[in-house]
Amino acid sequence: MHVIHLSVECFPLAKVGGLADVVGALPRYQRKLGVNAWVVAPFYDKVFTQERDFDVIHAGTIMQGAELLQYEILKEAGDPLGFPLYLIRIPGKLDREEVYCYPDEAEQWIAFQHAFLHWMKTAAIIPDVVNCHDHHVGLVPFLMKHAIDFNHLSNVKTLFTIHNGQYQGWMPWSKGILLPAFDTWRWGLLDWDGLINPFAAAVKCCDAFSTVSTGYLQELYTQANGLESLFQAESQKGYGIVNGIDGEYWNPEIDSLIAKPYKKSTVRSGKKANKKEFCRSVGLPDNLPLLAFIGRFATEKGADLLPDIIEKIFSNTENKISIFILGSGDDILQENLEELRARYPDLLAAFFGYNEALAHQVYASADLLLMPSRVEPCGLNQLYAMKYGTIPVVRGVGGLKDTVIDVEEDGGYGFVFHGLHVDTAAQAVLRALDVVSNPTVLQKIRQREMSLDFSWDKSAKEYIQLYNQL
């Protein structure tokens, strides 16, 4: 079976969020199971592409409105990522440093999708399945069925994998002239509330759609940023598959990015050694429980609540806990956290930005990980944390609800709170501190969570079963 994963993020090429981790791991695990899985992504002017060897395997031209665009297909030599990686480079559009936040983003993603389909046609590549990831490539299922130049691909099955339904790629109909020529009788498949909505078009036109957890699939029927009725109408096409994690990269036994590797049987001494080194490097005491937050400073992550949650925790623990924040995004939130750090210099530390190595060190060192998310389609941070023996404190939403069982339930290994309130989040942390203060109970929970299997092996099989079903 030949499957092409189409995405604008892929670790380690370009990472902004969990989308990159999924696309950078799932195809490798599928190939181990006999699937000929490729990844096709935009070209970025990053260290990754500067230091790797690529061969130009194809070149062509497409018309985007009145603009003639030249594109190249580059293939990474030797497939060192464990799967063939193909990049589409278009001068002036797909050759930039960052993934997002350019004013002509709609034009970028239209060009990416058009060039991909043009390459498929001119190179006579007909896969069994095209797995489209998020709205950036949401026009592909429509174009494969209804674009005049690409209807030879109409029988190729499409799976639309939803990593975050809050972002839908809305664009005005004035952008319609930029699309490849299509059957205009089908314009309604592109439309939602008077705009071209690539996300909605993908849900309408794909053969199936999947979400990155079963809990998030159920939430989309009632909370889908305006598309609730669409998901209800297309519910027969929906499947929930919980994300996995890459056990070859996120593994405390072999992790070269942490101070001291450890395994389940040595988790107590291993985390103690990592905490000592980490706290020394960031100026925190190593004799207190360490709570961490890792993520974007976005309202969907509940990051706007962090300052009040931190204040509440400190006021209720008599300063018997330290906190580390790793994230970026909202300047005002960052300023508020800076003010808190100035008030609690010995208890609160932060790194504003994203640092992959630092994230590994935090997971290996922290006792608790806080995720007060408003929306969490799956969540990978809690899975990484549990792999490293760090106990998650999460709001029971989306994939967090699917992957974290509260300690008060049989077999529980985390702390789950409900309701998006500062008090409920802080109270969950206080509950967790009682466990952290009991070495025997803490060791039991750590070993239980480190025994859980959230690897891609299981999830990759579920994707393959869905491909076969299609």
Automatic annotation (TrEMBL):
ADP-alpha-D-glucose binds at K15. It comes from the Bacteria. Pathway: Glycan biosynthesis; glycogen biosynthesis. CDD domains: GT5_Glycogen_synthase_DULL1-like (cd03791). Pfam families: Glyco_transf_5, Glycos_transf_1. Its EC number is 2.4.1.21. Residues 276-433 form the Glycosyl transferase family domain. The keyword Lipid biosynthesis does not apply. HAMAP family: Glycogen_synth. Belongs to the glycosyltransferase 1 family. Bacterial/plant glycogen synthase subfamily. PANTHER family: ALPHA AMYLASE DOMAIN-CONTAINING PROTEIN, GRANULE-BOUND STARCH SYNTHASE 1, CHLOROPLASTIC/AMYLOPLASTIC. Synthesizes alpha-1,4-glucan chains using ADP-glucose. This is Glycogen synthase. The lineage of its organism: Bacteria, Pseudomonadati, Bacteroidota, Sphingobacteriia, Sphingobacteriales.
